[in-house]
Please model this.
Amino acid sequence: MLLVTLTLVLVWAGAALGGKQGMTIAFIFAFGLNVFSYWFSDKIVLKMYGAKEVTEKEAPELYGIVRRLAQKAELPMPKVYMMHQNQPNAFATGRNPSHAAVAVTTGIMRILSSEELEGVIGHELAHVKHRDILISTIAATIAGAISYLAQMAQWALIFGGHRGDDDEGGSPIAALVMMIVGPLAALIIQMAISRSREYGADEDGAKIAGNPRYLSGALRKLSMASKQIPMDANPSTSHMFIVNPLSGGGILKLFSTHPPIEERIARLESMGR
Model:
């Protein structure tokens, strides 16, 4: 439902910018972006963060944990990647379980115990099992397209690129509303999708790892470290990480793609009890 709503926002943005023709172009644009995201998003995000695939010989502890938990979750063995980033964090990517990858930073390998690392890997494998990566990638792609259309509307208004006839071109008033409301609506919908999937991955990831306290302990450490150690992360991919790599307080927390860490920990500890 949320993905359909997000697509409708994109189509509405196209209509506001270019009338019926703009609506058609926006719909084709959304379809093309989704197809592209389905096939290539994993490669793009891994390259974006300089992730390098590692073998069992290069990272025996990490590789062993991923293999054992993947077997427990009845998933194909995903590829294992390492990112040379000081901030402890991790994410999973891939269009389906047969083409999945789990990536962790060098920072996470330094501060987590083996049990806590199992909790993190279990969380990421739960994302793979639920195909959350595909869902969140499509959401991020459409949201990015809406933001791009909003920028086009801004320049169109500056240079007078709109015509008054709605059949031939979008209304300047509609374009102005879209420029302000469109990206905000897309952000809220994307946030709702991401938050709901994080709670689900926490719950099932704890079951895969075998103990909810493994993940709750890891989240405590990761939350504290993410505030102290900066990471040069692209906001459009921040929702993929187990904890938000971008620090921000106050009103920015309302628009975070991640649920509050305290709430996630409380839910996990309740499962443990």
Observations:
- The beta strands are 52-53, 79-83, 90-93, 101-105.
- The CA atoms of residues 157 and 172 lie 7 Å apart.
